[in-house]
């Protein structure tokens, strides 16, 4: 069972700083004694990805090699020896650029290596995007508002067990994107009102439920079910298969949706 939490920034002791290949201003620090890893955006960076590859790996931008992070004594951070990961905005007096933070499980499930592993994301002043790339198994993900702790931001329950696994601090006009990765996924943002939801089912017979903002729901291949009746202008894309959507009449924008209820 997954246990991944993105929450408020909790300070991590700076032990070793490793610049990324994509942009030398993005750094990581790993305190092996406290089992804490921090990846900090560089002042000019707008995209950072953390994945469970050969250890815990990070990359700034969308190209280039992923990097590992080491402590001062040469211990490499991995999902097994790290309990808290902080992904933080750059220390800068200038206004923060909109940032996209991706937590990528496509190479491996974090919680299977360490059920205690938690992620803490603190982004900029608004217009930021949190992307979750799911595993290639059947996924059930809920997206909602935070109910405690941080003042502003979305919360994500990665296994629909009632616990909040992801918290994100951000400003206004932000987006939460969840990418399913095969099988018949349930991606539910029906309780989300503080951010736009982008839900991409991928292959399989997916069920996608939008929130109260102008959401983008894309079922991909399969016979998908959409729920987008929320009074906002949503984009609903059925893709290949026989798809069924419950929508707002003369408001939502369906494409390749064979059955439509209003």
Automatic annotation (TrEMBL):
<dbReference type="InterPro" id="IPR011049">
    <property type="entry name" value="Serralysin-like_metalloprot_C"/>
</dbReference>
<feature type="signal peptide">
    <location>
        <begin position="1"/>
        <end position="24"/>
    </location>
</feature>
<protein>
    <recommendedName>
        <fullName>Calcium-binding protein</fullName>
    </recommendedName>
</protein>
<dbReference type="GO" id="GO:0005509">
    <property type="term" value="F:calcium ion binding"/>
</dbReference>
<dbReference type="Pfam" id="PF00353">
    <property type="entry name" value="HemolysinCabind"/>
</dbReference>
<keyword id="KW-0732">Signal</keyword>
<dbReference type="InterPro" id="IPR001343">
    <property type="entry name" value="Hemolysn_Ca-bd"/>
</dbReference>
């Amino acid at each position: 069972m997954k246990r991944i939490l993105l929450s408020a920034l909790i300070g991590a002791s700076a032990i070793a700083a490793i610049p990324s290949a994509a942009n030398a201003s993005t750094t990581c620090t790993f305190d092996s004694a406290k089992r804490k890893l921090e990846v900090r955006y560089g002042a000019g960076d707008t995209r950072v990805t953390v994945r469970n590859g050969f250890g815990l790996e990070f990359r700034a931008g969308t190209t280039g090699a992923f990097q590992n992070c080491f402590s001062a004594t040469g211990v490499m951070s991995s999902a097994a020896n790290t309990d808290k990961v902080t992904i933080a905005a750059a220390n800068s007096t200038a206004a923060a650029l909109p940032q996209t933070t991706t937590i990528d499980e496509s190479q491996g499930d974090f919680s299977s290596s360490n059920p205690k592993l938690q992620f803490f994301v603190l982004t900029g002043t608004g217009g930021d995007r949190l992307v979750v790339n799911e595993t290639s198994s059947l996924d059930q993900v809920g997206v909602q508002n935070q109910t405690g702790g941080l003042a502003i931001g979305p919360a994500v329950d990665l296994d629909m067990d009632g616990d909040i696994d992801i918290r994100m601090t951000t400003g206004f006009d932000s987006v939460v994107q969840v990418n399913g990765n095969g099988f018949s996924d349930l991606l539910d943002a029906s309780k989300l009102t503080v951010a736009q939801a982008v839900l991409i089912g991928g292959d399989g017979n997916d069920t996608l439920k939008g929130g109260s903002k102008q959401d983008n729901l894309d079922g991909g291949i399969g016979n998908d079910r959409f729920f987008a009746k929320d009074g906002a202008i949503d984009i609903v894309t059925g893709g290949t298969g026989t798809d069924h959507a419950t929508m707002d009449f003369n408001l939502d924008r369906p494409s390749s949706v064979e059955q439509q209820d209003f």
